[in-house]
Amino acid sequence: MSTNIPNVQSTDELREKWMKPEVITGSEMLLRSLLLEGVDCVFGYPGGAVLYIYDAMHGFEDFKHLLTRHEQGAIHAADGYARASGKVGVCIATSGPGATNLVTGIATAYMDSTPLVVITGNVATTLIGTDAFQEADITGITMPITKHSYLVRDVEDLPRVIHEAFHIANTGRKGPVLIDIPKDVSAAKALFKPHTEPVAMRGYNPTVTPNRLQLDKLHQAIAEAERPLILAGGGVVYSGGHEELFKFVTSTGIPITTTLLGLGGFPSGNDLWIGMPGMHGTYTANNAIQQSDLLINIGARFDDRVTGKLDGFAPHAKIVHIDIDPAEIGKNVAVDIPIVGDVKTVLEMLNVNVPYATKADEWRAKVAGWKQEKPFRYDDSDEVLKPQWVVEMLNDTTNGEAIVTTDVGQHQMWSAQYYRFNQPRSWVTSGGLGTMGFGFPSAIGAQMANPERLVISINGDGGMQMCSQELAICAINNIPVKIVILNNQVLGMVRQWQELIYDNRYSHIDLAGSPDFVKLAEAYGVKGLRATNKEEAQAAWKEAMDTPGPVVVEFVVNKHENVYPMVTQGSTIDQMLMGDEE
Predict the structure, then answer these.
(1) Per-residue model confidence as pLDDT tens digits over 152-193
(2) Catalytic option among 111, 448, 464, 493
(3) Where would I find the Thiamine pyrophosphate enzyme central domain in this sequence (predicted)?
(4) 183 an active-site residue?
């Protein structure tokens, strides 16, 4: 695709130019330092406290910035960029309200271990603490949701701080790092001394290489297990360990379930893959966890949506937990074999002489039988458009090769259930925080990171209205995201809970007053299409795929459809509501 925001390709000649030691402003130091970190697109929104920074961008053709229409759009786009590329996402906002508009996005990235460098402006150092105009203590506000924060008081510290921030964000358990730059620091001048050497920080040394004795214990446990199971999470994707995981699974012959954020970390077409576990997971995955005698957690954090009732989770299993973050091990579930280390490194070492699970033949057959007998099911219809059918159509017409981003709600779960991912970094969704408004802006970031790939943003009619203003930047910059809206005119997941748990007491979920999404798209200069049945859906989607550039496709779907299976709160994960099948 060809956008109006070309990426900057770092060359030796360009790097030499960016590293030139000369007296420049803090703002210029910032831009050069970002380029030296390999940043090829920054998402942001200007304001008073960052005007020196934006002034430095003027005429600086090497530096590429995408102006979003809301700060939250900027940070979600940076998040999508990071998840889809494996690089650090970067966003910029001004002080006060600009900075506080980033808070939800920072928390989203923190919960899902996404590497971001978040740059905010602040009032001048002489005004900090005086309740000056547009002053907010953003480092204090975000302390619980950042991996680290910097308040830069000396312009000479900027190159070092930026280099350290990227190192912290993208090593160990990855996450967001905030750099707060007062206005007088961005204006001050000093000799630019670029920092490009490896970072060594006292007190920050994540454990990468695991204890060999623990790996030997796991090898022995695999040899002895009769009902082993692998639970793989987002850590596999973040570490780049998907190939090592594939080798581990196929070498041991152990069935594998992947969490919501682990989708794509193992190919869904493989016979040993049994789907997603948890609240809306497969019958097979949930029962396999509950009946396993060895559960090997690789890069997942035993989230409550996966475990269900904790004191009834995997009651017969010896638990192994592999994670880069030692704080996660034993936090929610007691662990028998803890293994601290980078997932890719751990798997590389495990794969040396890893035993085949020879005692698990009967178990493999049992799990395969469940998978065959109890796939995801829904009652299809030729009269109303079913959202599950729409997602299946998207999967079939793209061969599962698109990058898919979602907002949060029923459409998110249907996308996870019915779109089949075969490669990592093809699935971008807010897991831990469950942030509405995330889906569409994150798709913009994913597309900027992968200009040649098809990016599909699947949204509900609720979440789309929290970020629809970003249609402007798709139109202006010709960013060819295909924006799908599953419109059921209701807050679907809330309605489902109110139906099943709150005895049909529907309270404040009606979205019938939503805009005409086709006209809304056209108002921004984006093609808009609508479908109300299968024939229209197929035709509209084909037109969208054939259109070079952004397209909004609204699928008007059944209002009363529920996501099944479903595990209600307080239940163990094998106590599933199966829906119409029941």
Answers:
(1) 999 999 999 999 999 999 999 999 999 999 999 999 999 999
(2) 493
(3) 216-350
(4) yes
